Amino acid sequence: MDRTQASALHPALLPLGTDVGPWRVVGWGGQGVYGAVYQAVRAGAEPAHPVALKLALLPRDPRFARERELLARVEHPSIPRLLDSGEWQHPLGTVHPYIVMEWVDGTPLYEWVQEHQPAPEQVVRLLAQTARALEALHAQGAVHRDVKGGNVLVRRSDGRAMLVDFGSGIHSGAATLTPPGAWTGTPAYRSAESSLFSLRHMRDVAARYSDKPTDDLYALGVTAYRLITGTYPELSDPFKDEVGVWQLGEMNSPPPSALVPQIDPQLDTLIVRMLRVHPEERGTARELAEALEQVSERITLQRAPPQMTPQPAEMSSSTRPSPPPAVSRMRAPPRWPQAMAAATALMLSAWAGWAVRDGILAMPSATRPEAADSEREEASTVGLGDTASRAPTSSAPDASVPEVMAEDSLPEPREGQATPDAKGRCPRKGQLALNGGCWVRLGLEREDCEGSGYVFTSQCYGPVLSNPRHRQPTSDPGSQP
């Protein structure tokens, strides 16, 4: 291969037939933030069952060693098995690590429920299986750090929930790669305690949040709430207590039962429990898995047809025992509220680039990298042992550009933004003083907040601008056009 051909070869766009270690690329899987996933088989063993080969986009990416070690520690039927790992040398000399996992032929959780309209016990069973996977992970001192619907695939062969994408995961003794002040994960699923940590340490440039199993459980609660109701739960606005410490109240959103009355009462309680602000009230993955399994079994028994027993001839139909009432099937949320929300978002698009100023909207800039978009996780990811996106791959990414982590740091004040007074108070009631700027909650769904505001503590905020009459002119009024 000449140098021109070699330079055109990129880890994100390997041609079919390329050998990576003992594995041969036979299909495309998708591209994530840090790696590309291919369908591969052992070279010389075709035809064979495919595997998922994840190749690092950047040379010697240390995340792959951490992910390999994490997967090597855990063995569970709802976690893809680690099969191999190694390094692939690019023809120009750069070395890219890879890991090989069990190929999961499945559908992302939210999409699967929308397509199949499953019975309630099936939905609860999938949540229980995901909780069991987290139990196995936490038992090994590991945390997934990106639990969400897009990272749970429902396997086609047997309907089992498979927890995937361990690229953000961390285990005891692993090197910390996230810089201070940053946060890894998907903002819509960020735990209350992680958000509070950022608020309480906003001036400490060396502060680093340490993820715990309870962060995974909160994210599982968000997944369950979104799965059942079709919406994301929201926390209350942050506030300072009597000694000036930032606090958060409990969930501002109603419990799932207020939106889906037919939900099982115990399942409703479990979801609210996972979303508690105080992490110690969530319990453990094992406790939640056991409780979810009990709910699934009980619903199954309630839905089972009554036993056919011989009836005495003299027994009238009015005295015969009646079967238990049927439990309605778990249905995906109706589409018309989503259509209304989309129409509202379209009307708001006239305001979409604007932040609130005295009840009027004014232009802000984007506040978070696209990689942190909570809706990216709902893209279909079929057949992978790792999550990948549907982003177009017609051109290879520039490997010289550092990768952008999905992080949710505090927003910096923008030009012309109102600032709190010496006592930390903003000009108007209901405005939030945050990191030296004044912010107000926007009436936008989390999906529509990207680019129009800032998602923090699971809600959408926009910057409050200073009174324009107090601004200095930016051009000479006497100048001719």
UniProtKB/TrEMBL annotation:
Keyword ATP-binding listed: yes
Transmembrane stretches, start-end: none
CDD domains: STKc_PknB_like
Keyword Repeat in annotation: no
Keywords annotated in UniProt: ATP-binding, Kinase, Nucleotide-binding, Transferase
Segments forming a coiled coil: none
Matching InterPro entries: Kinase-like_dom_sf, Prot_kinase_dom
Pfam families: Pkinase
Signal peptide: none
One example GO MF annotation: kinase activity
Disordered as annotated region, ranges: 302-332, 367-428, 461-481
Listed Basic and acidic residues bias regions: 370-379
Domain Protein kinase per the UniProt entry, residue ranges: 23-299
PANTHER family linked to this entry: MITOGEN-ACTIVATED PROTEIN KINASE KINASE KINASE 20-RELATED, SERINE_THREONINE-PROTEIN KINASE NEKL-3
Protein name: Serine/threonine-protein kinase
Protein species of origin: Stigmatella ashevillensis
